Amino acid sequence: MKKLLVTGSSGLIGSEVVAFFSELGWKVYGIDNNMRADFFGPQGDTRWNQYRLQEKYTSFVHSELDIRNRTETGNLVKEIAPDAIIHTAAQPSHDLAASRPFDDFDVNAVGTLNLLEATRKYAAETPFIHMSTNKVYGDAPNRLNLAETDTRWDYADHEYQDGIKESFTIDQSKHSLFGASKVAADVMVQEYGRYFNMPTCCLRGGCLTGPNHCGVELHGFLSYLIKCNLEEKKYTIFGYKGKQVRDNIHSHDVVSFMYEFLKTPRVGEVYNLGGGRNNSISILEAFSLAHSLSGKEMVHEYVDTNREGDHICYISDLSKMKQHYPGWDISKNLEVIFEEILVSWKQRKKNADQ
Ligand SMILES: NC(=O)c1ccc[n+]([C@@H]2O[C@H](COP(=O)([O-])OP(=O)(O)OC[C@H]3O[C@@H](n4cnc5c(N)ncnc54)[C@H](O)[C@@H]3O)[C@@H](O)[C@H]2O)c1
After folding, report:
1. Of 269, 245, 247, 246, which is closest to residue 257 (Cα–Cα)?
2. Which among 302, 303, 290 is positioned nearest to 231, based on CA atoms?
3. Ligand 1 pocket, 5 CB below 6 A?
4. 334 lines ligand 1 (CB under 6 A)
5. What's the CA-to-centroid distance between 91 and ligand 1, angstroms?
6. Spatial contact of 242 and 303, defined as CB atoms under 8 Å apart
7. 323: which strand partners?
8. Whole-structure pTM over 0.90, yes or no?
9. Going by C-beta distance under 8 Å and a sequence separation of 6 or more, which residues neighbour residue 2?
10. What is the rounded distance in angstroms from the CA atom of residue 15 to the CA atom of residue 17?
11. For 258-298, what is the HEC assignment?
12. Choice from 134, 208, 221, 281 to test ligand 1 binding pocket (greatest atom count within 8 A of CB)
């Protein structure tokens, strides 16, 4: 039986990894200390997801470990000797990083280094997939020429019609402290590939989403937006006229790409992993789609100031992924994604009311 170690196993992507590989018959070991609740309060609590996984996948082993703990992280990697490692644990919010810079850097950068070094020592042949982010590009994408339509911003130059490629600069732009700690991790993951010849890869995520996200205002755009729509709670738009564009990818499609990489790993790779142009949507367009599916008007307010370093338009160019792994493609479009998130929030509310 193949063994997989996944960090952040109670989070959006980690939990999808647990489900996907458990269903394939792998033995899955998860690490998660529910730090999301510490970061975001009770709304960010991921325990429900951990319990759901433990109930459904009886062979799944949960470990209440903090990846900042270097010794214990090393011991666990040594003990399990996994066939694959997927690292999704993180402090994921821009805004929060500014108020907790040490926690942000210790989790995102140092935690990643702890895992890389444990892997090099005890499992150097094991493919190591790291969830990075498009925030490593900082706000440099905002310098591209943009065109404004009634509902969104878009790239004006033909060169960017398919989106942003992995060769885009990560240097000399504003990242937020979160983006900077993720750059440190991203470069380190690449370096363990190039320097030690380990099969590592960074997936620079666009908006990753899905029904198991605990969306909060500071993180989890669609999940939070749809929750607000259902509860008729006020959603605040921060700047850019609400026309800022995100490309959204369902967590299942993220994990199905990880599986392709594990089957034929490469060394020190980087991929932009988002929904691509077809799954791109602006906030205003997302309001309309949510309304059309739930029947509820979106209650919202507009604040003129945008979030620090926030992208105006970000679309991932998926061509490198598709070229390296032609068996992979997006399988869930925006309508399906919205519908699944809607159903999940309704179910969670029902469970909470019982
Ligand atoms: N969701 C997105 O839109 C998005 C976009 C781009 C990149 N990413 C990246 O993808 C990864 C996964 O994101 P997600 O949305 O699943 O996040 P998430 O917050 O849902 O999950 C992360 C999990 O890691 C756990 N965790 C945090 N600190 C920990 C620690 N010190 N030790 C052990 N566990 C810890 C949290 O409790 C949480 O369950 C992150 O690296 C994030 O930066 C996410």
Report:
1. 269
2. 290
3. no
4. no
5. 6
6. no
7. none
8. yes
9. 25, 26, 27, 83, 84
10. 5
11. HHHHHHCCCCCEEEEECCCHHHEEEHHHHHHHHHHHHCCCC
12. 208
State in Å: Cα 108 to ligand 1 middle. Answer: 9
State the sign of the Cα–Cα–Cα–Cα dihedral 177, 178, 179, 185: positive
Rounded to the nearest whole angstrom, what is the distance from the C-alpha of residue 35 to the centroid of ligand 1?
9
For ligand 1, say whether the CB of 6 is within 6 Å of any of its atoms.
no
pLDDT of the chain along its 354 residues, tens only?
999 999 999 999 999 999 999 999 999 999 999 999 999 888 889 999 999 999 999 999 999 999 999 999 999 999 999 999 999 999 988 888 999 999 999 999 999 999 999 999 999 999 999 999 999 999 999 999 999 999 999 999 999 999 999 999 999 999 999 999 999 999 999 999 999 999 999 999 999 998 877 677 767 789 999 999 999 999 999 999 999 999 999 999 999 999 999 999 999 999 999 999 999 999 999 999 999 999 999 999 999 999 877 899 999 999 999 999 999 999 999 999 999 999 999 888 888 787
CA distance linking residue 318 with residue 326, whole number of Å: 11
- The pairing of strands 27-31 and 3-7 is parallel
Question: What would the two tokens of residue 135 be?
Answer: 């925030």
* φ and ψ of 8, to 5 deg: 70, 35
Rounded Cα distance, 328 and 164, in Å: 19
Task: Please name the residue whose Cα sits nearest to atom 34 of ligand 1.
Answer: 32
Question: Which residues make beta-bridge pairs with 332?
Answer: none
Burial string for 217-251 (b: 16+ CB within 10 Å, else e) reads bbbbbbbbbbbbbbeeeebebbebbbbbbbbbbbb
**Which pair of structure tokens corresponds to residue 58?**
């009886």
At 113, list the tokens: 């280094």
Amino acid letter for position 255: V
Residue 33 CB less than 6 A away from ligand 1? yes
Rounded distance between C-alpha atoms, residue 17 and residue 10, angstroms: 10
Q: For a substitution probing ligand 1, which of 5, 34, 35 has the most ligand atoms within 8 Å of its CB?
A: 35
